[in-house]
Every structure is written in C-alpha cells, then in structure tokens.
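Predict both folds.
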Amino acid sequence: MAAYSILFIAIGRSQVATETLFQSTGTEQPLYLFAEVTAVNAARGTVQIKVSFANDRGERGTRFSGIPDRDLLIDVSDGDTERRTLYRAGEPMPALDFAADADGSIETYPVDLYKTVLYVRAYEGQKPGASHMIPLNLTVSESLDDWDASVVERAEANGMRLTLRLHRSSPIVFFGIVVYLAMALIAAASLTIGTLVFMRRRRLEATFTGALAGMLFALPAMRAALPGAPPLGVAADVLIFLWAEIAVAAGLGLFVWRWARGESPS
C-alpha cells in the first residue's frame, strides 16, 4: 500500500491545464492571441495548434471574439510552412488551425520527445511591413492529458518566436513500459513451460495448450492497447515485442512436440 501510494502521488495525479503569457514590446494597441495545443500526431510528426485572436480586452479579461477596428495581416509559421491570414476591419476574426511540423521520432516510444517552433507576426493594413508591425499579447495553453509541454520564448525583432517541447505524460510513459515488461514476462513464462515439459521436468498437461495459445494471441492485443500506439516497428517492438512473439511460439512448439510424440507423462 505504501509503494502504491507513492507511485500514485508520483505519476497518478491529474494534469492541470497551464497557461503562459508572452508579450512583445511596442507602443501601439496590442493584438491579443490565445494559442492552444489541441493534438499531437507523433506518427506524422505534427502538432495541431489552434490560434484565436482579439483586438481588445474586456472588463473581465481578454476577449477572443472581438472585431478589429483596423485591417490586420497575421503570419503564423513553423519555419517551413507559413500561413498568412487577412482580417478586415469590422469583420469577425475566426480561429486559425495550424499544423506545425515537430522535430522528433516516434522510434523511441514511449519516451519520445518532440520540438516545434512557432513564429507569429502581425501587421496593420493589408501588406506586411516592419513599420506597420503590431505588438502581440500571446497566451499559450498546455492542456493535453497525454502530453506535457513546455514553452520557451526567444525575442524577435519582428514578432514572436516560441519553442514548444513536448513529451508524453508520466502515466503514459509508465503504462507503456509496464506493458512491454509484461510482454517479456509472458514470453519467459511460455518458454519456461515449454522447455520444462520438453525436458520431462514437468508433467504433460493438455490444459497448458490453451494457455500457451492464449499467450500467443494476447501479445498483439496488448500491443494494440498501448496508449497512442505507434506504428509497428519502433525500437521497443524490435527489442521486446518481436522476440516475445517468437518465444511464446517456441514454447508452444516445444509443448506440442512432446504431446505429438505420444509419450506418457513422467
């Protein structure tokens, strides 16, 4: 119970959504933005970010449905792909969904790490120009349950540059490691049963046939149940899952070989 309590406190606590505020310098009226990381597709190497805009601040906080009193040109980029959107004065500013490229590899699942860079610039008018740059008031939300994110800002002369670092949350990492260890344990158990029966160290019992066959089909089901299950072939599959399947099949084969020879139990 003590070990369980310590483990729960360490990794079982619910994640609280956090918000980080970044501000760029300038004397003009700032543009208020709210950027939320909505999804991470590790297999494709993308981070989905929803950016909402407002042109003013309400009595009870920043409003993200404000209507601009001037034409605004917004540039959002990850360094490779740029999204430029024009908002006209007097018209609503719908939220912008942006898929940013993430540097990292799912090969190291479940301890894989990713990094993405987000550039945000705002101009007054319909054409970009340094003389029309608008200061930004950007709030970044980190609210994903299965991912932890940290945001770092680097000052930019023209706008704002944010670096997002993402990794899987502690419960996801713990669960993934435990499942792979369970696969290795099942493989060891199957190989032990088959070897001992084959060497006549244990009695030949028919009930073990169903158990060993169940182990063979249980491993792929456990692999598919992994949270955020990666494509087949990551490093953990090569190190554990593949060899676990071979070990279970070998244990079943040794057991059936002894049974097929029709020898009486020793």
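Second protein follows, with its predicted structure tokens after the sequence.
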Amino acid sequence: MKYSSEMIDDIDRVILREIQQDSAISQVELARRVSLSPPAVHARMRRLEELGIIRQYVALLDREKAGYDMLCLVNVTLQRHQLEQVNNFRAAVQQMPEVLECFFVTGDHDYLLKIIVRNRKELEQFLMDRLTPIPGVARISTSLVLSEVKNTTAILIE
C-alpha cells in the first residue's frame, strides 16, 4: 500500500514522534501519552507498519563506545556507468560492514559512503583491500569527520 499524508492523523503523528525518540517505549506508556488504550495504540502501530511508514525498530549504538573512533565520508567515482559495473559496485558495498550508508549522488562523484573504522590502519585496509579492488572504481576521495555537529535519525512529522 502506498503511503499518503492523508492516511495518518494527529495521534499517529504523536506516536511516530514518540517512538522516534524511544522505540523501546512500552505500549502502555505510549497509550498514556496519546490518551488511547494500549490495544488502540497497538492497532495504530500495526497499521503504520503495514503502510511502510515504520520500517523497523532498532537500538542506536554509540560508535565510539563500541570502539569505532573514526567516522569517514568516502567519495567514489566509477570509470564508466555501465550497468554491470554499477551493479557490481553496489553489491560489493552491500557486503561491507564498515559502510553504514551509501548514496548515489550527483556532482563530481558517483557515490558517497559513510563508513566507520576503529583506527587509521583499518581505514587504510578498507580503502586499499576492500574498496579500491572493486572493478570499475576510478577515484576515491576520503574525508575524516572531526566532529559531528548534528546526528539524528528522527524525521520531522507534521
């Protein structure tokens, strides 16, 4: 079912805001916050899941406390935009646990990767042993993130 903004009401919006802040909130507490019964909240959440608005529930980890000191942005340019090369690159990136996010972008580069590694040695190994050997990779440009000014997963729900 395709989502449209008319399919959710103000109560759904409050539910979505609340679970984005704490997906582990109990349905009893969530029901109290939106002034509904727990079964009514459960039914709304199931509907939001079926609509695809809620994709999944996750725990967000602190990467530095988990031992990943380096956050990097890697720009990748492919030699050619042939379907086979593009598909091979995308498939390879999907298998790399260091890659948190990968975007196909416009501009001077083809892809932007958000990666995490523990240290400079792991960064070198990732770039030289994992990314560079992918057939069709022409250029790689890496930026080290010095500090995160904003880091959120919350989507504005109005």
